[in-house]
């Protein structure tokens, strides 16, 4: 049997990659030389390097701060540095919502999607607009606290300030690397070696992964260096690094993956091969099991090898769980159309980060769900800015079995659209973080979705009376296990009492930055007594938390694993010792900015309780 891929083809591909690497390496070297010459020349050359700070923050997936403030928000990335070169915890920086692995080890943690390519590890992102489109020569990221979270830098061909939207929006990876552990939290200027691209850009995207960090990463500013004219490619070079070639292959695989998906999944005819090799001798189920470990682009490529594997690669059983988030830059209406016939049995679908800037239309999304929504159980749509009221209406009509819906940071959905969610009575998980959901719609959802187990309302600023919401939860949502009320501005001890009395299965409760809660009312002791199953409790920035509250937690919540009391002035080392002795499973204790807990106390507690990560933040 003649080989499917002749050796000549393999050698040709290898030679092509060598030429590409030579071109790129030489160009970088010439660019450095050109920059050095320009810096020593008085007369400004035509292609002088432009240096600019971000003009505007266009989009982001999460931030630690409030929607109505500048403290710890992504908007701090616009303009010149506020903090750098100082190190420490400063409110004038940009901070994402999570860090470490703590959020993956709590009751609200979601199961990961299989088939996620190893090259994709991004957890959050921020998109920055600059004044002038340039061909990038360098990107400087000023990190002021716990650096090392940035894992990818991308450039976009679309000009956010242009009056004429482009026919095609392209994203190119300038730099990508796995998350790394940086020794020490001190400030640094991060300047990775970026790839040269063939279009000018004034839209840069940073993607981060904070899983290896001991605390929140803080970013101060981003500086874009570039030239107005496209640098001329050159083929002069002498050395080729074999590791660079491997890197190129991964890069090509990611960059072309969804183009391959669009083209290859649309192929209906295949070349005639004499046989299917030894695959004819394998059981159908075994081949399906082998193929289940491939990523989606790899399935696309494999489908072109022979009829048997084409049949396997197009089997709907291969698409029971499908995450398209790693390919967000390439997903469009055509992608969804090609996938329709293969996703008729799909149960988990992740479209987070996809479809923005017109890539997915309302009609394209609706057509897909009308064909593929009947078996859908889990739908992830985080940061889906194409979503509108029609989309939510289609979801509720076409997905009768839906149990999990993630609309995190879908801040373009109008308030009235959330009323449709109340029609999905089977919902067990609902994430509305940073959305415009209003009180009337939320009350309707709570009334009709009594099976809810996990609910996130963090940074939902349009809810007027959280006490009324908490009362409805206590009356209707008896199965609630986790509740996120991060930065809810108006809940009081009355709402907490209703919640604790009605939702006694709660294992996770986030009341961080809820300023209207006061320990003197007994709300925290009431929580501790009514919710013995608590594993995670965040009382972040509540200065009224006192020793009595800590001692009640020690006495009643012995399963506690994570506790955040950042900012309290009333907790003593003695009460913390009681808590640590009682709660044997405790793994995270944040006592940052707790005035009675100094570094000496933290060192002592760390020595006596080595299994607990005790965090004490600082400012210099």
Textual characterization of the structure:
- By secondary structure, the chain is of the alpha/beta class.
- Among the domains are: 179 residues, Jelly Rolls (Sandwich); 114 residues, Leucine-rich repeat, LRR (right-handed beta-alpha superhelix), CATH 3.80.10.10.
- 28% of the residues lie in helices and 17% in strands.
- Strands 10-11-12-13-14-15-16-17-18-19-20-21 form a twelve-stranded parallel β-sheet, with helices on one face. Strands 1, 2, 3, 4, 5, 6, 7, 8 and 9 form a nine-stranded antiparallel β-sheet that branches.
- Helix 10 links the parallel strand 15 and strand 16.
- Helix 6 packs parallel to helix 7, helix 12 runs parallel beside helix 13 and helix 13 runs parallel beside helix 14.
- The N terminus is likely disordered.
- InterPro entries: F-box-like_dom_sf, F-box_dom, FBXL15_LRR, Leu-rich_rpt_Cys-con_subtyp, LRR_dom_sf.
- Pfam families: DUF7885, F-box-like.
Radius of gyration: 27 Å
- So, the CATH homologous superfamily of the domain at 49-227? Galactose-binding domain-like
Any idea of the CATH topology of the domain at 49-227?
Jelly Rolls
Largest sheet: 12 strands, parallel
CATH level 1 name of the domain at 49-227? Mainly Beta
Q: Can you tell me the residue ranges where pLDDT is under 50 for at least 5 consecutive residues?
A: 1-16, 22-44, 234-258
Helix/strand/pairing class, anyone? Answer: alpha/beta
Please, how many helices?
15
- Side by side, the strands of the main sheet go 10-11-12-13-14-15-16-17-18-19-20-21
Q: Any guess at the CATH architecture of the domain at 49-227?
A: Sandwich
Domain F-box: 276-331
InterPro entries: F-box-like_dom_sf (IPR036047), F-box_dom (IPR001810), FBXL15_LRR (IPR057207), Leu-rich_rpt_Cys-con_subtyp (IPR006553), LRR_dom_sf (IPR032675)
Pfam families: DUF7885, F-box-like
Keywords: Leucine-rich repeat, Ubl conjugation pathway
């Amino acid at each position: 049997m003649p080989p499917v891929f002749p050796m000549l083809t393999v050698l040709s591909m290898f030679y092509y990659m060598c030429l590409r690497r030579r071109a790129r390496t030489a160009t970088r070297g010439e660019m450095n030389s050109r920059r050095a010459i320009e810096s020593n020349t008085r007369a400004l050359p035509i292609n002088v390097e432009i240096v600019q700070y971000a003009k505007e923050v266009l989009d982001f997936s999460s931030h630690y701060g409030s929607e109505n403030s500048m403290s710890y928000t992504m908007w701090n990335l616009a303009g010149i540095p506020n903090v750098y070169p100082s190190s420490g915890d400063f409110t004038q920086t940009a901070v994402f919502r999570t860090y470490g692995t703590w959020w993956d080890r709590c009751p609200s943690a979601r199961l990961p999607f299989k088939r996620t390519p190893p090259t994709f590890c991004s957890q959050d992102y921020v998109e920055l607009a600059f004044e002038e489109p340039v061909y990038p020569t360098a990107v400087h990221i000023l990190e002021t606290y716990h650096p090392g979270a940035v894992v990818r830098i991308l450039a976009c061909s679309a000009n956010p300030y242009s009056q004429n939207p482009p026919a095609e929006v392209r994203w190119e990876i300038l730099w990508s690397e796995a998350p790394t552990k940086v020794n020490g939290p001190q400030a640094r200027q991060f300047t990775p070696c970026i790839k040269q691209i063939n279009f000018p850009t004034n839209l840069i995207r940073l993607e981060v992964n904070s899983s290896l960090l001991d605390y929140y990463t803080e970013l101060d500013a981003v500086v874009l260096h570039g030239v107005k004219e496209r640098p001329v490619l050159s083929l002069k070079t002498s050395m080729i690094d074999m590791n660079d070639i491997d890197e190129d292959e991964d890069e090509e695989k990611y960059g072309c993956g969804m183009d391959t998906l669009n083209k290859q999944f649309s192929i209906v005819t295949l070349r005639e091969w004499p046989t299917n090799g030894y695959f004819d001798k394998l059981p159908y189920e075994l081949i399906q099991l082998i193929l289940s470990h491939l990523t989606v682009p790899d399935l696309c490529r494999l489908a072109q090898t022979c009829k048997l594997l084409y049949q396997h690669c197009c089997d709907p059983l291969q698409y029971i769980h499908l995450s398209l988030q790693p390919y967000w830059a390439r997903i469009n209406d055509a992608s969804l159309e090609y996938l329709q016939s293969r996703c008729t049995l799909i149960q988990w679908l992740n479209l987070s980060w996809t479809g923005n800037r017109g890539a997915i239309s309302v009609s394209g999304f609706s057509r897909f769900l009308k064909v593929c929504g009947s078996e859908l159980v889990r739908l992830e749509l985080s940061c889906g800015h194409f979503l509108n009221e029609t989309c939510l209406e289609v979801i509720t009509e076409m997905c009768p079995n839906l149990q999990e819906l993630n609309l995190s940071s879908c801040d373009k959905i109008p308030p009235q659209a959330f009323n449709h969610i109340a029609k999905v009575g089977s919902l067990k998980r609902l994430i509305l973080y940073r959305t415009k959901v209003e009180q009337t719609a939320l009350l309707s959802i709570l009334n009709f979705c009594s099976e809810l187990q996990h609910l996130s309302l963090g940074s939902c600023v349009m809810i007027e009376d959280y006490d009324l919401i908490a009362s409805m939860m206590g009356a209707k949502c008896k199965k609630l296990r986790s509740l996120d009320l991060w930065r809810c501005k108006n809940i009081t001890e009355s709402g907490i009492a209703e919640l604790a009395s009605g939702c006694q299965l709660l294992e996770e409760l986030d009341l961080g930055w809820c300023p209207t809660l006061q320990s003197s009312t007994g709300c925290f002791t009431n929580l501790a007594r009514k919710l013995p199953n608590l594993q995670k409790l965040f009382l972040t920035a509540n200065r009224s938390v006192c020793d009595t509250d800590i001692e009640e937690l020690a006495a009643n919540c012995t399963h506690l694993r994570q506790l955040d009391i950042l900012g309290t002035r009333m907790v003593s080392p003695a009460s913390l010792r009681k808590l640590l002795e009682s709660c044997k499973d405790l793994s995270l204790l944040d006592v940052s900015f707790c005035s009675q807990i100094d570094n000496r106390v933290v060192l002592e507690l760390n020595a006596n309780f080595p299994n607990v990560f005790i965090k004490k933040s600082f400012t210099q």
